[in-house]
Amino acid sequence: MSPSAPFRFAGATAVLTGAASGIGEQLAHGLAARGTHLVLLDRDAAGLETVAGAIRAGHPDLPVRTVVADLAELSALPGVAERIRAEHPRIDLLVNNAGVGLGGTFEQVSAEEFDWLMDINFRAPVVLTRELLPALLAAPGSHLVNLSSLFGLIAPPGQVAYSASKYALRGFSEGLRHELAGRVGVTVVHPGGVRTRIAETARTPAGVSAERARKDREDFAALLSYPAERAATDILGAVERRRNRLLVAPSAVLPDLVARVLPGSYWPVLRHAPRILKHAPRVLRRLPGRRRRA
What we know:
Layout: E1 13-17, H1 22-33, E2 37-42, H2 45-58, E3 64-68, H3 77-87, E4 93-96, H4 111-137, E5 143-147, H5 160-179, E6 185-191, H6 198-201, H7 210-221, H8 228-240, E7 245-248, H9 250-261, H10 267-270, H11 273-278, H12 280-285, H13 290-293
Parallel strand pairs: 1-2, 1-4, 2-3, 4-5, 5-6, 6-7
């Protein structure tokens, strides 16, 4: 299988982080349905076993391996990767899906909190990619997927740390795609308002009051309407077609369009995001093929 041919899931081995919930959980089920052997990572041991148990029940002959790991512990990740490589010297698909949220302005977020976010959202995918790259290179036609975010396309106020981590992952993915061309395919994914628990589980900076954090979580959660199962289907379709970039949901596509048209002044328009996103599907229908070209 060459990196330019459609990705074949059946019989492939995939390593997936953040597999215990949200998009990661749905990706695990989608990969299992396609006959992919699974190595599932998450720090939530109970949630991870629940997902793995459901997959084993539905696909009793499918190999499913679980690895409990906290991506914030960067020094432990090479050892985690070494154990995975020992069992799977060839890896066909690596999906760096795990991530965390952290609201607050730059002045409200401490240096320690900023580093914590960067460690999980950016540095951990870099470490895992570096450590597992030999196994990817050993599998002709292998593929790498990194989940950035809508906030890797735009940088709203109150999301400086999160945007920094997701822009960094985007840049890493794009540069790596050019370096690995012809050897390993690379897809960077920018989910918009996907219905997950990211707003509920986002960390509150020490500089933000509990009431302000609660209101921000509620406002953010109201924008999360795109089904995680559908997002996973979109992502696996992009992998199969070897797409370089995927925008998931109209809530990512329309802001990306505005930011490209108004790269230096998009926020005065997008600050009215709830109203804009409400009409996003209707607007996008007037732009045939826009999403496919992203």
